[in-house]
Amino acid sequence: FENRKNVYNTFTEDDEVVITEKLHGTNFRCGIVEKTDISILDRFKDGLGFKTDKYTFCYGSHNVMLGSGKKGWYDTDVYGEMVKKHYLDEKLEVLKEDLAIDTIIIYGEIVGEGIQKDYSYSLPDKDLYIFDVKINGEYVDYLQVTEICFQLGLKEVPVLYIGKFSNEKVDSG
């Protein structure tokens, strides 16, 4: 949610929460998802019982799914740079097979020089920090996000607090 003031009574003191730092960058997501544009030939093959690949790898931001060569808002394809830098197309395919799942999407923030003015985070280059993961259409819990980041060799956004919800803890920053 954008602002806690809009959902002030959403959590109780019985709720376990994970509070992470808001990084100022550009939203990133990539994953292996079900194809929405299955060709007539693949539909025909499916009808005859032949195996066809119903899933595809894609990446981009929360507003746009991009493919190779598209730039989005930047001079270069920063989303594709992160895919290449971290070998995400290959790693997600291996993880998909290892976990025996159909779809996986990772969500993160790209930060560093040239992304958001005055927010370079003293990084020598742009990098990706993960804040969520969705498997087979369901968001996973924080421990699974941590494990998946470890398996993929990715960084997580900084964690500020883990524990029982407390308005005092949240308000203290």
What would you note in describing this structure?
The longest helix has 12 residues, at about 90-100. This protein is of the alpha+beta class. The chain starts with 15 loop residues before the first strand and ends with a helix. Residues about 70-75 have low confidence and may be disordered. Strand 3 and strand 4 form a beta hairpin. About 25% of the residues lie in helices and about 30% in strands. The strands form two sheets. Strands 2, 3, 4, 5, 6, 7 and 8 form a seven-stranded mixed β-sheet that branches. A two-stranded antiparallel ribbon has the order 1-9.
List keywords for this structure.
single chain; about 170 residues; alpha+beta; two-stranded antiparallel ribbon; about 25% helix; globular
**Helix/strand structural class:** alpha+beta
Q: Could you tell me the strand content as a percent range?
A: 25-35%
Enumerate the spans where pLDDT stays under 50 for 5 or more consecutive residues: 68-74
Order of helices and strands: EEHEEHHEEEHEEH
Please give the largest β-sheet.
7 strands, mixed
| Average pLDDT reading | 84
The termini sit apart by 17 Å
Radius of gyration: 19 Å
Q: State the helicity in percent bands.
A: 25-40%
Total beta strands: 9
Categorize the overall geometry: globular
Count of individual helical segments: 5
